[in-house]
What we know:
Elements: H1 15-35, H2 41-53, H3 57-74, H4 81-100, H5 109-131, H6 139-151, H7 155-172, H8 179-198, H9 211-219
Helix pairs in contact: 1-4, 1-5, 2-3, 2-7, 3-4, 3-6, 5-8, 6-7
Amino acid sequence: MLRRKGLMDYNILLIPKLILGLFLASLGTVMMIHANIGLFPWGILNAGLSNASGLSFGMWSQIIGLMILMIMAIFKHYPGLGTLFDIFFVGFFIDLIEASRLMPSPDHLVMKLILSITGLFVLSYGVSLYMRCGLGAGPRDGLMLMLMKMTGGSVTVVKSVIELSVTVLGLLLGGPFGFGTIMLAILGGKVMNLVFKWTNYDASKVPQKSLLDLWKQQATV
């Protein structure tokens, strides 16, 4: 007898791993914030908006994620369960960690570098953990993939245009830019690839399912 495929086949057991990955990605982000030597592009924008509005870094992460989600929906690019979790939990965890006041803010340059680079590794491991669940990429990666399909541009070109635009906007709003920003731009991709290799994660072999895929799966008997 054939069994209807649905949410249980989408592997609810992966959700704890997904949330752990998002927590680690958030922890890595807070570590880079407290290093105070510059942030990655989306972090610069979040911090700039936070400074300009009084809303928290985490809240702006959520707001921007929702805005990207709406833009993608207009062009019929649908999120996965992991995308929705990313939008909510990353901002939530960032604000939760900040509220705990447990993260140090070192004064010595060497310690700042160590904290920032360690944060990059923690962030990368968190990304590999939740991406291997196959429940959908984060909204910012989803935006990049959508624009690549729409324009035919390469990942390098599209990613560079997005991040340059986001960085400029963040700087205009007073976001933090320092040599750490340049360091993260140079090392970010290399560290992530290294962590993916260490964890035996191959993004090309783990398809990211959208909620539309789930709906279609639910309709299959």
